[in-house]
UniProtKB/TrEMBL annotation:
PANTHER family: ABM DOMAIN-CONTAINING PROTEIN, QUINOL MONOOXYGENASE YGIN-RELATED. GO terms for molecular function: catalytic activity. Transmembrane segments: none annotated. This is ABM domain-containing protein. Residues 5-94 form the ABM domain.
């Protein structure tokens, strides 16, 4: 059985766009959780860095993650990202090395 794919995405809001970015990211959660192959899609905000948001995602595999990137709700977010984001979205693709105990 193939291992799940974990994705960590880091996004930073432009100054003054923190609330708008938070709202746009929050709107992605529900439709993404309904996607085939989505195991977890958790949105976090940094407690010590205003405007810094992080997704912790778990997908059945890379194909399911890639398919999500083409979904209308994510494409709509990406179309407005330049207005909201300070810099690029930083994405790390990970495989678990040790089981959760």
């Amino acid at each position: 059985m193939p291992e799940n794919l974990t994705v960590i995405a880091h996004l930073r809001a432009k100054p003054g766009q923190e609330t708008a970015l938070r709202d746009a990211l929050t709107a992605l959660v529900e439709p993404t959780l309904r996607e085939p192959g989505c195991i977890a899609y958790d949105l976090h905000v940094a407690v010590d860095e205003a405007g810094s948001f992080h997704f912790h995602e778990v997908w059945r595999g890379p194909d399911e993650h890639a398919a999500n990137l083409q979904r209308p709700h994510l494409r709509a977010f990406l179309a407005q990202a330049d207005d909201l984001l300070d810099g690029d979205i930083h994405v790390n693709l990970l495989r678990r090395l040790a089981p959760v105990t």
